[in-house]
Amino acid sequence: MIERITKSMAKNIYLGGGLFALLIFTGLTFDTVQQIPKRSNDDKITPSVAAGKNLWEVNNCVGCHTILGEGAYYAPELGNVFQRRGGSDEAGFKEYMKGWMAAQPMSEPNRRKMPQFNLSDKEVDSISDFLIWTSKVNANQWPPNIEG
Fold first, then answer.
1. At 70, is the secondary structure helix, strand, or coil?
2. CB count, 10 Å around CB of 49?
3. Of the candidates 75, 82, 63, 62, which has an alpha carbon nearest to the alpha carbon of residue 130?
4. Under 8 Å between Cβ of 125 and 133
5. Cross-strand pairs, 67
6. Which residues of 94-123 are buried (b: 16+ CB within 10 A; e: fewer)?
7. Is the per-residue pLDDT at 65 higher than 60?
8. Which has the closest alpha carbon to 80: 7, 41, 132?
9. In whole angstroms, how far apart are CA 125 and each of 56, 90, 92?
């Protein structure tokens, strides 16, 4: 004996599945909203961090780099550049960044060239503060390796 799905059964499956998916979506959304304040580090945003984010956008750094996995994959991930190049020494990282930005574009063979943006020391400090702040966001162990 072959049973067929009636219109009524199909309608119940459709509505039940839709309701189930909606409940799962609502639950996951609620959980995400609850997690954001614990992970975002937004209480540590200073005017310098905000200025660094603005410089990041104005100079289209995301056109080549990724930050926390968002952006282009042409140049290295910068969400963890503070851990890679500064460790826990913020002043040392800022000096490293000043030297790095001043040395661009490098003329090493087989190396992609980063443009010279001619940023002031204050602007480089702001970008450094933004990258330091970004490194302290709980990104759930992203990137998966230290070199991004």
1. strand
2. 21
3. 82
4. no
5. 70
6. bebbbeebeeeeeeeeeeeebeeeebeeeb
7. yes
8. 132
9. 12, 10, 11
- Tokens in use for 25? 């979506």
- Residue 66 near residue 148 (C-beta atoms within 8 A): yes
Assigned token pair, 10: 């199909």
pLDDT (mean) for 66-79: 90
Q: Which amino acid is at 89?
A: D
Q: Kindly write down the DSSP assignment for every residue of 111-145, as one continuous string.
A: -PPPPP----HHHHHHHHHHHHHHHTS--SS-SSS
Q: What is the pLDDT of residues 109-132, one digit of tens each?
A: 777 788 899 999 999 999 999 999
Single-letter amino acid, residue 83 = Q
